[in-house]
């Protein structure tokens, strides 16, 4: 069995660092039986630094309203513009209404005042630090999810029939044009932004050239393997999202983010061995005219909330073994600026949705928004290191007994876990 490192780009798909024999892809795609019940993680990155203070609103802290005279989300019971009360102190932005059901069902938890110990307010650096899980260290070679893939054998029950203990090529998939920093590393991972274009075209394309090289190979094993690989790619292309019917009445927004999550749902339900999925969504850098329950931020949250709700609804019973984690590189300043927006901040809010989650609760110590309580006098302070959220998911959901190789330079201690899982 030939094993190669393959890198291909063709239109809207990419196979990145796939260290497996191509026939393995064929056997996976042709598998008729399906397996389930493996633990799965879906990571969602809100790029641009979302304002967690107006997503999960601390309406019980009067300083929030003093600091934001024109853009604060109104308190609950203020009509349609008011926050959705979660626990008497925190509330959802009203555009997050689609997720309230999961809060009520105790499938959704929040970690507030969460973030990085690093002081940077650079989008690039902060995203890099969160995706590598090594704050302040720019030289880290791989992402934390790739290190998870390196140290954790493919989860039992997540192998296509006939593959024994081997992971499938679809173990880690990013619905993006390029492989995110979080999944970069030596472990195999795949990036594509459209399943419907995960394939080859006629003519002198990169894909056709690659197929021709296999067809021309002198080695009969290699030649046969190449044919199987491209047959498998064509078969996977037949799972076009245009013909995909979500379950349970789920309706995905017809936005890039909504369609990315739809394809994650499709792959998860195709039972091709998906364990880790990634998607991102931008547009959160609201320096000017941020708005509250209406406006720039609210519009982005409408897409975000509706898309997440559709994915959870679509996956249905599969959510018992799935966790969805949302993150952003840092939050926004407590006070609004002169342009009725917010500048780069520090602490933020993460959401965790799924099986085993102790939902219906906001975790993390609330530091308060009074000026003397703010980080550097201006931002929400961080009381939960984001690596403790990642670490708890890795240990208590994904089942890694020794997370040290995943978080170099940081001692993962269950005593610091937020308590997201029982």
Short structural summary:
The protein is α/β, with parallel strands linked by helices and 422 residues long.
Key features?
422 residues; eleven-stranded mixed beta sheet; three-stranded antiparallel beta sheet; 14 strands; globular
Fold and architecture overview:
The chain is an alpha/beta fold and 422 residues long. It has one domain (38-198, 251-416): 3-Layer(aba) Sandwich (Alkaline Phosphatase, subunit A), CATH 3.40.720. The protein is 27% helix and 16% strand. The chain has helices at 22-30, 62-67, 100-104, 123-132, 144-151, 206-215, 220-237, 256-270, 296-315, 386-397; strands at residues 4-10, 13-20, 40-46, 56-57, 84-85, 91-92, 108-115, 172-174, 189-192, 276-281, 322-327, 348-354, 361-363, 384-385. The strands form two sheets. Strands 1, 2, 3, 7, 8, 9, 10, 11, 12, 13 and 14 form an eleven-stranded mixed β-sheet that branches. A three-stranded antiparallel β-sheet has the order 4-6-5, with no helix packed on it.
């Amino acid at each position: 069995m030939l094993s190669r490192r393959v890198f291909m780009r063709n239109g809207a798909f990419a196979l990145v660092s796939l260290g497996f024999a191509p026939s393995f892809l064929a056997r996976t795609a042709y598998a008729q039986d399906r397996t389930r019940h493996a633990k799965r993680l879906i990571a969602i990155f809100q790029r641009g630094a979302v304002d967690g203070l107006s997503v999960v609103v601390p309406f019980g802290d009067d300083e929030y309203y003093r600091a934001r005279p024109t853009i604060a989300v109104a308190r609950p019971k203020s009509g349609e513009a008011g926050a959705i009360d979660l626990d008497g102190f925190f509330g959802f932005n009203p555009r997050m209404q689609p997720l309230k059901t999961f809060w009520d069902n105790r499938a959704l938890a929040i970690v507030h005042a969460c973030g990085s110990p690093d002081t940077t307010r650079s989008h690039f650096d902060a995203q890099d630090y969160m995706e590598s899980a090594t704050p302040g260290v720019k030289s880290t070679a791989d992402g934390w999810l790739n290190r998870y893939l390196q140290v954790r054998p493919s989860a039992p029950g997540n192998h296509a029939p006939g593959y024994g203990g081997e992971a499938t090529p679809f173990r880690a998939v990013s619905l993006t044009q390029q492989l995110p920093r979080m999944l970069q590393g030596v472990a195999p991972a795949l990036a594509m932004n459209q399943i419907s274009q995960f394939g080859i075209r006629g003519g002198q394309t990169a894909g056709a050239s690659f197929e021709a090289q296999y067809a021309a190979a002198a080695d009969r094993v290699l030649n046969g393997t190449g044919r199987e690989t491209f047959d498998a790619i064509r078969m996977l292309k037949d799972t076009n999202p245009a013909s995909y019917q979500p379950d349970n009445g789920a309706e995905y927004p017809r936005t890039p983010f909504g369609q990315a999550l739809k394809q994650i749902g499709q792959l998860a339900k195709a039972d091709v061995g998906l364990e880790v999925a990634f998607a991102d969504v931008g547009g959160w850098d609201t320096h000017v005219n941020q708005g509250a329950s209406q406006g720039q931020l609210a519009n982005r949250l409408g897409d975000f909330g509706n898309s997440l709700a559709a994915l959870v609804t679509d996956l249905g019973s599969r959510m018992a073994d799935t966790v969805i984690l949302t993150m952003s590189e840092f939050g926004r300043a407590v006070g609004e600026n002169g342009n009725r927006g917010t500048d780069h901040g520090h602490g933020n809010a993460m959401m965790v949705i799924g099986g085993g989650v102790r939902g219906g609760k906001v975790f993390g110590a609330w530091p308060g928004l009074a000026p003397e309580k703010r980080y550097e006098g201006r931002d929400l302070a961080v009381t939960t290191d984001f690596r403790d959220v990642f670490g708890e998911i890795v240990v208590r959901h994904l089942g890694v007994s020794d997370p040290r190789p995943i978080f170099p330079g940081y001692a993962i201690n269950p005593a610091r876990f937020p308590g997201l899982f029982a």
